[in-house]
Specification:
This protein is an alpha/beta fold. About 30% of the residues lie in helices and about 25% in strands. It has 11 helices and 14 strands. Helix 4 crosses helix 5 and helix 5 crosses helix 7. The longest helix has 18 residues. The model has no long low-confidence stretch (mean pLDDT about 85).
Length: about 325
């Protein structure tokens, strides 16, 4: 990834709410980030932090209603994805931007063989003939490490293991040579050995094909091994972002530091206990007017209950949204 490269994806001020019977849920609150060509961006946070909703908002994958994107822009390939018509967005989705969902068993259609499901985007987005699409589907299965591809194209999802189904999902997402691939916790339902294989496969494909990848996960251990840069989300907003090595070496936000303490360590004393983050994530019933992490934070003070901090620059490519200065161990002078 060249330094100073223009972003291939630029998200600014994204806000997404869900209208429910009792009011609204503010799931994404003023989220801004970018993605450089060839970069692998890790997006981490607990369940309910807004990771998946943010990425699904970008591509119009949320049901409307109850979802509503209140404001923001998503610039990709010279156009704002939030303003283009539905047909143009469908051509971007699955064509220039691929999406790998968390559970391949519910994402794949059980009544169609995998060959038909891989060939569908090839025929729709690239206008391939059935013969050419079949040959390309075979190549894609081989690319993601599924042997005996011509025969396996005829098989149905239930005839594949969990790891193989996820490989099929990756093949579908890669079918049209996307510029960006979004992977939503694709290894969560897999055992540890298969997780490692999928992670290795994704890293290899990303480097070979030169595409940019957004990898959504709750596991900091995963992003440590694959990501160039990490975005940390909490309460529907970004609380910290930094290059991966910098984030692990110099975490600034209390939530990031708490997450890092929950990561198991292979090398450690036998009496070391795995730490947890006390309390529960916030209920996002309104747009935040205070720091969403304050009730679980061990360094919170009065200002945290009065204002929602904006991100400030910590260093090169590193910013955090916190009133506490981790370096000087006291309130930040702003």
């Amino acid at each position: 990834m060249p330094d100073g490269a223009q972003p291939i994806l630029d998200v600014r001020g994204l806000k997404t709410v869900f209208k429910i019977r009792d009011g609204e849920v503010h799931a994404v609150n003023d989220v801004s980030f970018d993605l450089k060509p060839g970069e692998l961006l890790g997006v981490v946070g607990e369940s309910g932090s807004g990771k998946s909703v943010t990425m699904m908002s970008l591509l119009g994958l949320l049901p409307t209603p109850p979802a509503e994107i209140r404001c923001g822009s998503v610039m990709f390939d010279g156009q704002d994805l939030l303003k283009i018509d539905a047909e143009t967005l469908r051509n971007v989705r699955g064509g220039k931007i691929g999406f790998v969902f968390q559970d391949p068993m519910t994402s794949l259609n059980p009544v169609y063989n995998v060959g038909m499901q891989i060939m569908e985007p090839l025929r729709k987005h690239m206008g391939m003939s059935k013969k050419d699409a079949t040959l390309r589907a075979q190549e894609l299965l081989e690319l993601v490490g599924i042997p005996d591809a011509p025969q396996r194209l005829k098989d149905y999802p239930h005839q594949f293991s969990g790891g193989m189904r996820q490989r099929v999902m990756i093949a579908i997402a890669l079918a049209c040579d996307p510029q960006v691939l979004i992977a939503d916790e694709p290894t969560t339902a897999l055992d540890v050995t298969i997780q490692a294989q999928i992670l290795e496969l994704m890293k290899e494909l990303q480097e070979r094909l030169g595409m940019a990848v957004i990898w959504i996960t709750h596991d900091l251990g995963v992003v440590a091994g694959i990501a160039d840069r990490v975005v940390v989300m909490y309460g529907g907003q970004i609380v910290e972002q930094a290059p991966t090595r910098e984030l692990f070496k110099n975490p600034q936000h209390p939530y990031t530091r708490a997450l890092l303490k929950t990561v198991p360590r292979v090398l450690g004393k036998r009496e070391d206990r795995l730490q947890v983050i006390e309390g529960q994530p916030p209920i996002l019933g309104a747009s935040p007017t205070a720091c969403p992490f304050r009730d679980r934070c061990d360094v919170a003070f009065s200002r945290c209950a009065q204002e929602n901090p904006v991100r400030y620059k910590v260093g090169n490519g590193h910013d955090a949204a916190c009133f506490y200065d981790a370096r000087n161990k006291g309130p930040r002078n702003v």
